[in-house]
Structure prediction request, 192 residues.
Amino acid sequence: MDNHHPHRRLGALTANSHGQPPRPAVAGRRLGALVLAAAATLTFSAACTEDSEAPAGNAAAAAAGGPEPKTLEGAKVAAQTVFDRFSGGDFAGAWEMYTSSGKQAISKDDYVKLNTACSRKGLAIQLTSARMEGTDRAVVIAKQLVAAQSYTMVYEADAWRLEPAKEGLTLYKLGADKAIAAQKKAGTCAGG
Prediction:
C-alpha cells in the first residue's frame, strides 16, 4: 500500500458574474474525468497482473485473508502497519504482529502494560527505507522525530512479522513491572 495520498484540485475555481459561489472550470472537469478514467484503467490493469510487487496485489491478498506477499513491498506495508499501531497506542495490535519469539518473550498483557507506562504515544514512526535480506527477511529503517532505527521483518506463517531486537527481548523477559522499573531507573521510560 502506498503511504502517499495526494489530494489535488483538478480545476481552478472560477467566480461567476452573478455573485454565486465559484464552480470548477470546465477544463478542470474534463481533466478530472480523464485522470479518473486513467486511474481506473491502471487500477484494473494492476489488479489483473501477476506481478507480485504490485500494491494492488497486497491489498487483494489482505482483503481475501490469504497469505501476505513475500516481497519487499509486503514487508514495508506490514512494518508501517506495526509502526502505526504502536505510535497510535494500539499496543495489543502491535504485539499481534510480532514474531513467535517476540510473543514468547512477553505476554500481550505485559507488553500493553509496559508500553502504556513507558512509550511515547502519538509520535508518528515513518518508514524511510527497506531492503531484502534473503527471501524471508527484510531490514527496514524507520524514523521518529530525528532518530532513525533499523528493524527486522521476518516472513513467518504466511505473514510479515516484526522481530524484536535482542535488547527488547532481554527487557521483555523481565516482565512488565520489572521492565518498567528498569526503564525508569535508566531514564528511558517516557511516562516517568
Summary: The chain has eight helices and six strands. The CA atoms of residues 11 and 29 lie 6 Å apart.
